[in-house]
Model the fold of this input.
Amino acid sequence: MAHVIPIRGSAARAPEAGSTLTFSTVHGYRRAYRIAGEGPAVLLIHGVGASSAHWEDCFASLARRHTVIAPDLLGHGDSAKPRADYSVAAYANGLRDLLGVLGVERVTLVGHSFGGGVAMQFAYQFPERVDRLVLISTGGVGRQVTPVLRAATLPGAGLALGLLKVPGAQLSIAAFVRALQLLDTGLGVDAVDLVNLVDALPDQNSRNAFTRTLRAVVDWRGQVVTMLDRCYLAQGIPTLLVWGDRDSVLPVDHAHTAHLAMPGSRLEIFPGAGHFPHHADPARFVRLLQEFIATTTPGDWSIEQWRELLHTGRPEDIYTRGVERQYREASERSAT
Done:
């Protein structure tokens, strides 16, 4: 059944209308989002430091067949930036409440990086509202994460981010990025997109929200939360994992770990792509997502199945399939 959003006081949105931000107030805070199309709902969740504009390469194409919703997470983009809880659980709650305001009961979740962790948390907290799960270069698998993000959690990082905005700094950054690209380093593949995240932090409130969000999931040693301890609970939800084989932020090894830890999941690797495979080849990503939605049946959650999975626990044979170390590390990094 198609989940069509009732747009109060306006006609149904054309796909190109998604380029315009819409605003709603949820719990007293302004929430910005883009919305377009008609049909089964797809919720696009960006990563830390990004915004709904992150999805501009694929938004209109997806909206030809679906109701597409791309929010600016709290603390990001044009949404409010309060001194608040920026944990993955809080974000999952916020998305549930935004969907409530929009009158949407079920969605296919598409999350990138930190947004993938939020999507996984949403599926854990509200499985009855999830049709499918699509995780792109998702966080929450292994401890490893680029030293750039680990450094951004250290004391004084907010000040350093501010210095990157002073006149002349952009020239130095551009030269550094060019050098990384010429050396054909892994970080060079992702450098432009990572610099764009910094450019999207125009003021101190934005930078504060960025560091608070990042510190909720990363510290100087790496990622501090995990989905491995309970991702087996998503086995009733059709799941697609997408990764670039040159990801310099979260290594592609995490893709294979997540695939093994999520029985029945599908894994797609984009050759030559980094941490942003949907930017490297948006046409392929849109085709892949549309085909995945068209060929899978929405998750059929039941409280009985949930209880049985909880009693049975994580499949023990996963330990013999090459992910023992990640599970040992995960025991120190429990998600909420």
